[in-house]
Specification:
This is NAD-dependent epimerase. By secondary structure, this protein is of the alpha/beta class. It has two domains: 295 residues, Rossmann fold, CATH 3.40.50.720; 157 residues, Alpha-D-Glucose-1,6-Bisphosphate, Chain A, domain 4. The protein is 38% helix and 23% strand. The strands form five sheets. It has a seven-stranded parallel sheet with strand order 3-2-1-4-5-6-11, with helices on both faces. Strand 14 and strand 15 form a beta hairpin. The longest helix has 30 residues.
Length: 480
């Protein structure tokens, strides 16, 4: 079959594509930024179409001569009003797929609580399914928390259990939910092509509580953990706590937490009848397999791969926090590198001059170098030389510049830029690394994250503007 996969850079889509290829299907993917497919072993074996779900022409081209399509996208992390955005995107996709004569759409949604109002996230997922089913022959799988190496649900359980010996948890952690292993999700998605449109199918393993999920993880890891359910912790407060303790940001933690405020138990009778080939593995086995993959370093995809849409990635993995920003610049790498090579010293850091000055002053008070070292030359760099409170650790013009922080920090930090040439333009990849030292380092990062996120976002934009020659630079305030 010729199959279109949307969401191919996401957690599920990134694992589905190679399995479709193994089964002999001709796979086409629709992505906003094809550069995000680089490095994936299957990237050269798929037909890549660039565009979004709100681009009618891109949708038309991507759906031409397609027999079946997978709808594996959502707007929860990239749109503030995600409910309207998700419905609008589903409508656009459904109309284009119907006009193209697509015979089957496979959609992965979420389980709904029985007899009570669902969360905004789950209600939006259900609405997307309604839209697709109204226009097209559809199989809509409704699943609970997906468990696998790198999945958001698994990572939330993992970090909470690893980092908190004693947990005061809301009473709703006792609610039953039906998790499902990623391998079983993929099995259902693959078999759907053979079975044809089946409407709504609820899937999942045997139910257990979120508390039991954490206790199972602790037992497999040989950890002693105490979980104390209390009736007073509000969902938003719990989500904020998850966002603080785990790498899951609040924008993802809130819907994850709200999704388990009520029991989420799947009625799997239709799934067993329609897909007898799939016998969902128990939660404990799914966790054991995920831990095994982590130990071997064989994690195919992670929840953060699709976080905040194209251009942004935040992940906390194996003691290293990475915050990555990607931006296309309509200029050659040499022009962008000239801007990078001139940062710091008397010129400053292009944006938030007062914040850089204040950080330098604080560093001096703590016994660090602050900004007083400046730089040797206004536009030239040498490996190993100092630039304010940074040191040049790697230099490969016009492709790479990495600075290592020498200010006083509860951990180690780097700021790196990579430039990838693309048809006379370039892709600028800016990465902030931080390896926290103990709990102090962990708290330091997350307490300052709102400021760092804004500063580094503005910085990569300012570098692009400077490379394009858009306006004079405003000098930072003078240093004391």
């Amino acid at each position: 079959m010729r199959v279109l996969v949307t969401g191919a850079t996401g957690y599920v889509g990134g694992r589905l594509v190679p399995r479709l290829l193994e089964r002999g299907h001709a796979v086409r993917v629709l992505v906003r930024d094809p550069a995000r497919l680089e490095g994936r072993p299957w990237a050269g074996r798929v037909e890549v179409h660039r565009g979004s779900l709100e681009d009618p022409e891109a949708l038309r081209r991507a759906l031409e001569e397609v027999e079946a399509a997978y709808y594996l996208v959502h707007a929860m992390l990239s749109e503030k009003d995600f409910q309207k955005a998700e419905e609008r995107q589903a409508e656009a996709f459904a109309r284009a797929a119907r006009e193209a004569g697509v015979g089957h759409v496979v959609y992965l949604g979420g389980l709904l609580p029985k007899g009570t109002k669902p969360s905004l996230h789950l209600a939006s997922r259900a609405r997307v399914g309604e839209v697709l089913r109204a226009h097209l022959p559809t199989t809509e799988f409704r699943a609970g928390p997906i468990v696998g190496s790198g999945s958001a649900s698994f990572e939330m359980v993992r970090y909470l259990t690893e980092r908190l010996p004693v947990m005061v948890a809301p009473r709703w952690v006792l609610n039953p939910v039906c998790p499902i292993a990623i391998r079983d999700v993929l099995a259902y998605l693959l078999l759907a092509l053979e079975k044809g449109p089946q409407g709504v199918v609820e899937v999942g393993a045997e139910p257990l509580s979120f508390k039991a999920m954490m206790e199972t993880y602790a037992r497999l890891r040989g950890l002693k953990r105490v979980i104390l359910p209390v009736p007073v912790l509000a969902p938003r407060l719990a989500a904020l706590w998850v966002g603080l303790v785990t790498p899951i940001p609040n924008r993802l933690a809130v819907p994850l937490v709200e999704g388990i405020l009520h029991p989420l138990v799947a009625d799997t009778a239709r799934a067993r009848a329609l897909f007898p080939e799939v016998d969902p593995i128990p939660y404990e086995k799914a966790v054991a397999l995920a831990l095994e993959r982590l130990a071997l370093g064989e994690v195919e995809t992670r929840w953060s791969g699709a976080l905040f849409g194209p251009g942004y990635l935040l992940e906390d993995r194996e003691g290293m926090i990475r915050e990555v920003r990607t931006l296309r610049v309509e200029a050659p790498p040499e022009a962008v590198f000239r801007v990078l090579a001139s940062l710091g010293g008397d010129r400053g850091w292009l944006v938030w001059g007062w914040a850089w000055w204040l950080r330098g002053l604080l560093d001096r008070l703590l016994g660090g170098p602050g900004l007083r070292r400046g730089r040797r030359h206004p536009t030239e760099l040498l490996p190993g030389e100092a630039v304010d409170f940074w040191r040049v650790e790697a230099l490969d013009p016009p492709r790479l510049l990495r600075l290592r922080a020498e200010m006083r920090l509860p951990g180690e930090a780097w700021l790196e830029w990579r430039l990838l040439e693309e048809e006379g333009e370039c892709r600028l990849v800016q990465t902030a690394y931080f390896a926290p030292r103990g709990l102090t380092g962990f708290l330091y990062w997350w307490l300052l994250y709102p400021f760092h996120r804004r500063i580094f976002s503005d910085l990569v934009g300012a570098i692009r503007r400077e490379a394009l020659g858009a306006g004079p630079h405003t000098a930072p305030p003078a240093r004391p």
